[in-house]
Amino acid sequence: MAAVLLWPQCGSESIAVVSCLRKILGEDAVRLKPLLAACVFGLAGVQSAEAIEFEPRLKVVADGAAPTVALTFDACSSGFDRRIMDALVAANAKATIFVTERWLKKNPAAFAELRARPDLFEIENHGANHVPAVTDAASVFGIRSAATIEGVRAEIDGGASAIEAATGARPLWFRGATARYSRDALALIAERGMKVAGYSVNGDMGASLPAHVVKRRFETAQSGDVVIAHINQPGRPAGQGAADGVRALAKAGVRFVRLDEVETRGDEGRPLLAAGHEVDHKLHVQRDDYRGGQPGQSGHPAGRDELSHLGPAGREPDQRDHREGQLQAQDHLAQNK
């Protein structure tokens, strides 16, 4: 309680609750770490709301007898997965493709193919350089974040301008790198005139899963679901699984829709505490997950059996923090050498 009463002496709003209490308590902070953890959540009204990340959900409003599914694919950087493209075209399956400015520059021929089929493909904004739209941490899943609201604005506007220059139309949707957002970033996306592209089924966990697992995840999609996967990793098994999943859904009589042609319903998702290893020393934001555990374990925000809000309970534990984070970080480092 004394620490709470002393709160005003901490000054700068950029110092998070834990850092503040450590300043007050000095060496006792280590011994009193459990108390500090309790104070973090007890002072939720004092701590900046931006210290919590959000991973929005999205579903489409299904109409008609046929099950309706929206396929969305991210083209972060790297290349173009011909297996997925061929499966989509063969099935006459509509899809929304989220591209970065970086991907557009590296893949002009692939983009021309997508543009040649406006009946199938909608092009939307995945940012300028695949930088997470997060302001409270230096990195997300090992990928350096925008860190400031100005950085988020540059990421949103850079991607939007590139798409408008290439297509003549301003994008309607934005999906940030890692699909996690600070609350101020969500507000800015709306201010810039775009909707946040969440999802309800994570098809490939950042193109990190085996082909048979990806196919099975696609097959779990129910009417109204929005599936996320990646079309920029032709060298990974996940792409084959996505292609097989498209064929399986088509065989099951699924009606594929783009986000621009249907009514959608979404929310910002549950507040998520960042992984324990994500600590932003520069911004003085402590990012320990005091509820403990790794994805898929008891105590983790995802729960014991739930697929981190991205799918029904009782299937594979969510390994996003490990597989997707490592693979995306490796790609990001390779592209910036």
| Global structural class | alpha/beta
Write out the CATH superfamily name of the domain at 54-267. Answer: Glycoside hydrolase/deacetylase
Question: How much β-strand is present in the residues?
Answer: 5-15%
Number of strands: 15
Q: Termini separation (Å)?
A: 49 Å
CATH topology of the domain at 54-267: TIM Barrel
- The Rg value, from CA coordinates, equals 21 Å
Our count of helices gives: 12
Q: Into which percent range does the helicity of residues fall?
A: 25-40%
Which sheet architecture does the biggest sheet show?
A: 6 strands, parallel
Q: Specify the CATH class of the domain at 54-267.
A: Alpha Beta
In CATH, the architecture of the domain at 54-267 is Alpha-Beta Barrel
Mean pLDDT reading: 76
Strand/helix succession: HHHHEEEHEHHEEEHEEHEEHEHEEEH
Gross morphology: globular
What's the arrangement of secondary structure elements?
Layout: H1 2-5, H2 17-25, H3 28-31, H4 33-42, E1 53-54, E2 57-60, E3 68-75, H5 82-90, E4 95-99, H6 101-106, H7 108-115, E5 121-125, E6 139-140, E7 143-144, H8 149-167, E8 173-174, E9 181-182, H9 183-191, E10 195-196, E11 201-202, H10 211-219, E12 226-230, H11 237-251, E13 255-257, E14 264-267, E15 271-272, H12 320-335
Parallel strand pairs: 3-4, 3-12, 3-13, 4-5, 8-10, 11-12
Antiparallel strand pairs: 1-9, 1-15, 2-14, 6-7
Helix pairs in contact: 2-4, 5-11, 8-9, 10-11
Describe the 3D structure.
Strand 11 (201-202), helix 10 and strand 12 form a beta-alpha-beta unit. It contains 12 helices and 15 strands. The strands form 5 sheets. Strands 3, 4, 5, 11, 12 and 13 form a 6-stranded parallel sheet that branches. A 3-stranded antiparallel sheet has the order 9-1-15. The protein is globular, with a radius of gyration of 21 Å. It has a domain at 54-267: Glycoside hydrolase/deacetylase (TIM Barrel, Alpha-Beta Barrel). Helix 5 packs parallel to helix 11 (237-251), helix 8 (149-167) runs parallel beside helix 9 (183-191) and helix 10 (211-219) packs parallel to helix 11 (237-251). The chain has 337 residues and is an alpha/beta fold.
